[in-house]
Amino acid sequence: MTGKERREQLLTIGRTLFADRGLDGTSVEEIASAAGVSKPVVYEHFGGKEGLYAVVVDREFERLLGLVTDALNSAIHYRGKLEKAALALLEYIEENPDGFRILVRDSHGGTGTGSYASLLSEIAGEVEYVLAQEFDRHGYDDKFAPLYAQSLVGMVALTGQWWLDVRKPRREEVAAHVVNLAWNGLSGLEPRPSLDPRRRRRELERQGKRAEKAAAKAEKAEERAAAKAEKAQRRGRRDPEAAPDASP
Asked: Where does the record place the region Disordered (predicted)?
């Protein structure tokens, strides 16, 4: 095995152990034993477990940041940007659960590596730039772009942490619901959100038809109630005249 191959082997093994046990719970002996080498080999390549851990975290940091940044830049419409970014995070979690666990649970400031908080800050910076352009185009105050960027990124990131362990529903459905809340707000939630714009259009059409039927039904109900009230009023006017005089 070449030096480069050995280094990659140690990184793969370290990534798995760090995800399972954390930096503090993993020893150089365990890393060396899993790789079938002596401890000096680990020290030779990384100077110790902290050096190995730093490289693992930096790799995951750059990989996830690159995926989300590319997703934000790959769509033209702003809803599409949000959809692709949310899906990129969920795809990374599904395909790299060990890497995500390391980023979320074991970011050590003392290692000099990027933490999950700093990763989210980097992503929020990208989102802020996108939002500032959109706010300016619509005449909104772009000084609030950082606030909205942090809110959007925080919502997606926390959902991702929750989904890391539950894994239900499937990632496309999770992304659709996250975007539903972010895009429409609680007052305008779509009953059946989807990442497919054609399905959304069909659902909106169905909603429109249901709303029309409900409005027509309500109108008929009001007409019946009004007719009933008018009939009762006429009967009330007739009854006093028809009633027998009970006075002596």
From this structure: 190-248
Residue 71 lies inside a defined structural domain of this protein: yes
Question: If 0-12 CB within 10 Å is exposed, 13-18 middle and 19+ buried, where does residue 122 land?
Answer: middle
For the chain, 248 residues long, the average pLDDT of each consecutive 10-residue run is 93 95 94 96 95 94 92 89 94 94 67 69 90 86 92 93 92 95 93 90 86 89 88 78 52
pLDDT at residue 88, as a whole number: 94
Would you say residue 233 lies in a domain? no
The most distant pair of C-alpha atoms in the chain lies apart, rounded to whole Å, by 124
Specify the CATH number for the domain of residue 120.
1.10.357.10
Angstrom distance (rounded) from CA 177 to CA 57: 29
- Report the number of distinct structural domains present in the chain: 1
Secondary structure string (H, E, C) spanning 215-236? HHHHHHHHHHHHHHHHHHHHHH
pLDDT of 238: 74
What whole-number distance in Å separates Cα of residue 40 and Cα of residue 48?
A: 9
Residue recorded with tokens 């959100």: 193
- With the C-alpha atoms ordered 199, 65, 62, 171, is the resulting torsion angle positive or negative? negative
| pTM score, whole prediction | 0.76
Q: Would you state the pLDDT for residue 137?
A: 84
Say what the pLDDT of residue 240 is: 62
Kindly write down the DSSP assignment for every residue of 132-190, as one continuous string: HHHHHHHT--GGGHHHHHHHHHHHHHHHHHHHHHH--S-HHHHHHHHHHHHHH-GGG--
User: Would you state the structure tokens that stand for residue 163, as one six-digit string?
Assistant: 């989904």
- Token pair, residue 169, equals 């529903």
Print the domain residue range for 170.
3-187
